[in-house]
Amino acid sequence: MKPLKLLPVLAVTLALCSCMNDVTFSSDARCSLSFSQDTVSMDTVFTGVASASKGFIVYNRNDAGLRFSVMLSGGQSGVFRINLDGQGGTRMDGLEIEAGDSMFCFVSVNIPESSAGTPFLESDSIAFLLESGTVQYVRLMACGQNAVRLRSYKVMSDETFTPALPYIVFDSLTVAENACLTMQPGTRLFFHDGACLDVAGRVVAAGSKDSMVVMRGDRLDEVLDGLPYDLTDARWLGIRLRGGSFENRFEYCDIHGGCYGILADSSASDRVKFTMHSSMLHTVAGNCIEATGSRIEVANSQITNPGLACADLAGGASDFTFCTLADLSLWRQGTCAVLLSDRRDDVAVPFESASFNSCIITGRHANEFSAGLPDTARYEIAHSLVMVSDTTGSHFRNVIFEDRRSELSGAANFTGNSRTGYGSVFTLDSLSHARGIADTVAVDWPLDLAGVPRPAVGADAGCYQYYQ
How far from chain centre, in Å, is Cα 407? Predict the structure, then answer.
């Protein structure tokens, strides 16, 4: 057997390896780095809570490699931290980037508490020190916000939350029996993942048109560019009203982003479980309102974009006036906007009555109203716009029926990019069939949710009066 001729192959291999390792680095002052952005602005960050990372790209668009060091101008005493090419800290030396290559730089911030009551600005800069002596900067900015931190917090006696600082609820906020939690206008509650408001006593969330009470998740950053976590659901659990909880009041509230909205446990229906007036309850993974054997009153409110139903009502008595109940979620295919029944989890629940007056009940399905009840049950939909295929029921009075196949149905009732936008807009479009069909109950609600006056006669159905 003849010996293999390995020398030419070995020579080629060594030559290739030599070429691969033959990387040149320049110290020419005319060579510099490029950045995908010259300023990194962080979202508002609660003090004492580390932010999510935000990144930018470092490019070398030269024909030779560059060596450099990186440092934060604020040093160890600053509030920012960086991670570049897998190295983290406030200073990194001996970094290299080859010609035509790039690397990611990630920035995070942890702002300590301060005496400031209002949001305050923190700033720093990342200095890139090139071998040539050139120094380049990327500016860092973050808005800090002090907050009241609540961990397994129990309201044992009457207590009032104020708008002075936002509240971060890390796991649970519980209102004990015989206690009342009052929220003043402008109060903001930010719930951590899995946190909830659990009410055995009573809650009075009394906002105003210009200063709503807000209950939402605590993620202030973005899922993607242009898509804040605040526009997505399941950021926190939601509000649970226990069986012995009555006379709860939600007025000018914005409640959104939970696994559910308001979950009302089975109660005696001779007392009002909760009222919700001039409020928004939207973008939840389950039901916006789920009430079992309860008496509830909802008016002048937007109840929209659930993962299941806008209102799932089993038994009890419910009254909805000037409400927009629309199932137009882009994230989940819900059941329908309104569900009425006399059972919950195969357990019978006495049904008393249900009324929907001057409402909009619409969505993406052919039937957005479903009643698993006998014909003799006491429920009525009047002076409303309803997406339903069976229009022969005796429970409809002066109703405009929508056909899902029509281009003027569903999302077309509302202004803005409701069909494709992340945050659907529910103010009325000029061509909506909900215009002018409301009952004379407009005198009881002279202003819509946005503060626009309603005419005493010929008002629009839903929570918004058309306004050009």
Answer: 28
Closest residue by Cα to residue 37 from 51, 62, 55? 55
| Architecture of the domain delimited by 147-444 | 3 Solenoid (2.160)
Domain at 34-144, CATH class = mainly beta
**For residue 206, pLDDT beyond 60:** yes
CA distance 80 to 66: 25
Nearest CA to 464 among 383, 310, 442? 442
Amino acid at 465: Q
Give the integer Cα–Cα distance in Å for 256 and 210. Answer: 18
pLDDT tens-digit readout, 6-34: 445 444 444 443 444 567 999 999 999 99
pTM of the model: 0.88
Phi, psi of 20 (to 5 degrees): -65, -30
The average confidence (pLDDT) of the chain is 91
Nearest to 247 by CA among 308, 203, 303: 203
Distance separating alpha carbons of residues 1 and 58, to the nearest angstrom? 56
**pLDDT tens for residues 312-369?**
999 999 999 999 999 888 777 788 999 999 999 999 999 999 999 999 999 999 999 9
First to last CA, the chain: 94
Please, which residues have CB within 8 angstroms of residue 109's CB and are 6 or more apart in sequence? Answer: 42, 45, 50, 51, 79, 80, 81, 122, 140, 142
- Dist CA 108 CA 298 (whole Å): 43
Q: Indicate where the chain has its CATH 2.60.40.10 domain(s).
A: 34-144
Q: Which part of the chain has CATH 2.160.20?
A: 147-444
Distance of alpha carbon 234 from alpha carbon 465, whole angstroms: 30
Whole-number Å distance between alpha carbons of 184 and 172? 20
Give the chain's largest Cα–Cα span. 107
Q: How far is residue 123's CA from residue 205's CA, in Å, rounded to a whole number? A: 36
Contacts of 132 (CB under 8 A, 6+ apart): 26, 27, 28, 29, 31
Q: Do 405 and 357 form a contact (C-beta atoms < 8 A)?
A: no
